[in-house]
C-alpha cells in the first residue's frame, strides 16, 4: 500500500520471516535426512548437517521406487491425459460458446454439474464399470478416467476464455469456405494457448500427484505410478528411513523443476482455475 | 459480411440453412468430450445409485433389489457417523484456519516488504507435493524428528500428535494447512492486486488509517475471493483421503478415519459394494447441499457488502 519502508513494514517483514522458517522446516528435514547415513539418524540433532553427502539412500530409493518405470508411467499418464483434456475441452468449449442455442447451453450445464461431483465419491461404481471395460492394469483406462472426470472443470475454464475471443476472425474463415472443424484446428486452437498453458499446469499437478485412481486400477508392478510406489517406501525401510526421504525428493523433483521454470504460469493457472 | 447486410430477406433463409449445417458440425465436435464425460462420470453415478438399492457384494452374480435397506443401515452404522463427524470437524477447522491464514499471508505479502517472491515461493511450495508425501513427511516429523529436539534441549513437549485420538485431528490439520494455505493465498493475492489503488488513496485523503482501509476496502473488495476459497477449502477437506492413508491410516483406533476412507474400506475390504454405494450417495447429497448453501449465503453477503 504505502511505498516507504516504515516500522510497520519491518514488523510485517519479521512476522513473515518467522512463518517462512516454519514452512521451511519440513523441507530442510527432508533434504538433510535424505543425505544422512543410517548411523547419523540416531544421536545427532535433526538439524545438523550430514557428515558427508550419502548418495546410497538415493540409489536405494531409486531401485525401490523402480524409478524409471514408475516415472515413465506417471509421465505417460499425466502427459496423455492433459493433452487430451486440452484438446477435448477446447472442442467442447468452442462448440458450446459458438453453437449458442438451447441445446448447447443445456449441454454446458450438464458438464458444469460434473464439477460438483468429485470422483472420490463415485470411485466404487467407477471401479466396477472400469473392470468391465478392461481398465484394470491398463494405462489407457486410467487416462480415460482422468480425462472424463476432469473435463467439466477444463470445459468451465475453456468456455470462460472462449467467450472473450472475438468471432470476426472465424467468420472471415467461414466466408473463405473453411469448415468448422478446420477453423477450429487452424484458427481457434492456436488462440487458446494462454488458457491451455494455465490448464496444463493445474491439471498436471493434480494428475501427477493423484493416488486413489492408480492405486485402484494399476496393481501390476510394471504399471505403478510414483505416488503408489512412494506410499510403501517408509514401511519398507523402517529402520533406515532416510531412503524414504530420498524417495520423497526423487518423486517430487520433476514437478518442482517444472515449477521453478514456469512459476508465472503456475500463478496464472491457479487464479484462472479458481473460476473468476 | 457485406452480403448479409445488403440483401436482408434472402440472407435470412440462407443463414438458417447454414446455421443448421453448422450446428451439426458443432455437435460433432461436442460428441467426443460428451462420450468421455458420460462414460467416466454419468454412468458410474447412475450405476452407483442403482447399486445402492441392491445387496450386491461387488463380485458375485447375485444382485437383489432391497429398497432403502442400505440407507436405513447407514444411520445405524456408528463407524459411518464417527467418520462423518471427524470429516466434518476436519472441514470446519480447515475452512476457518486456511481462509484466515491465507488471507493474512496475502495481505502481508501485498505490503511493501522485501523479498516477496522468495516468501511466496516457499509458502506455495508444499502445494506441489502429493498429499501422500505430505502425510509421510509429517508422520516422521511428529514421530521422530521433533521428539529428538526434546532430547537435545531436555524439554518434554508432546510432539507425537498422531499417537493419541485426542491430538490426531490437530496433527492432521497442521499437515493439511501447511500444504494448502499457499494455494489459497495466491487467489487472495490475485484478488488484492485487482483492487484499484485509487480507492486507497481516496481513503487516505479522507483521513482513513490502515485499519479503516482494511475493514472498509480490503475485505469488501475481496468478497468474491472469499467465496471461492471457502467453497474450495470446504469441498477439498470433505474428500480428504490420501493424506490420512499416508500418515495415520485412520488411527489410532478409527479416530481419524475419513468418510471416503470408510467408503473405500467398506467396498474393497469388507466387500459390501452396494452398501458403500449407498454411503457415497448420501455423502454426495451432503456435499451438494452444502455447496449450494455456501454459495447462497456467501453470494448474498457479497451483495450486501
From TrEMBL, chain A:
<comment type="similarity">
    <text>Belongs to the binding-protein-dependent transport system permease family.</text>
</comment>
<dbReference type="GO" id="GO:0055085">
    <property type="term" value="P:transmembrane transport"/>
</dbReference>
<feature type="transmembrane region" description="Helical">
    <location>
        <begin position="12"/>
        <end position="35"/>
    </location>
</feature>
<protein>
    <submittedName>
        <fullName>Raffinose/stachyose/melibiose transport system permease protein</fullName>
    </submittedName>
</protein>
<keyword id="KW-0472">Membrane</keyword>
<feature type="transmembrane region" description="Helical">
    <location>
        <begin position="75"/>
        <end position="96"/>
    </location>
</feature>
<feature type="domain" description="ABC transmembrane type-1">
    <location>
        <begin position="71"/>
        <end position="262"/>
    </location>
</feature>
<feature type="transmembrane region" description="Helical">
    <location>
        <begin position="241"/>
        <end position="262"/>
    </location>
</feature>
<keyword id="KW-0813">Transport</keyword>
<dbReference type="InterPro" id="IPR035906">
    <property type="entry name" value="MetI-like_sf"/>
</dbReference>
<keyword id="KW-1133">Transmembrane helix</keyword>
<dbReference type="Pfam" id="PF00528">
    <property type="entry name" value="BPD_transp_1"/>
</dbReference>
<feature type="transmembrane region" description="Helical">
    <location>
        <begin position="108"/>
        <end position="128"/>
    </location>
</feature>
<keyword id="KW-0812">Transmembrane</keyword>
<feature type="transmembrane region" description="Helical">
    <location>
        <begin position="140"/>
        <end position="162"/>
    </location>
</feature>
<dbReference type="InterPro" id="IPR000515">
    <property type="entry name" value="MetI-like"/>
</dbReference>
<feature type="transmembrane region" description="Helical">
    <location>
        <begin position="183"/>
        <end position="208"/>
    </location>
</feature>
<dbReference type="GO" id="GO:0005886">
    <property type="term" value="C:plasma membrane"/>
</dbReference>
<keyword id="KW-1003">Cell membrane</keyword>
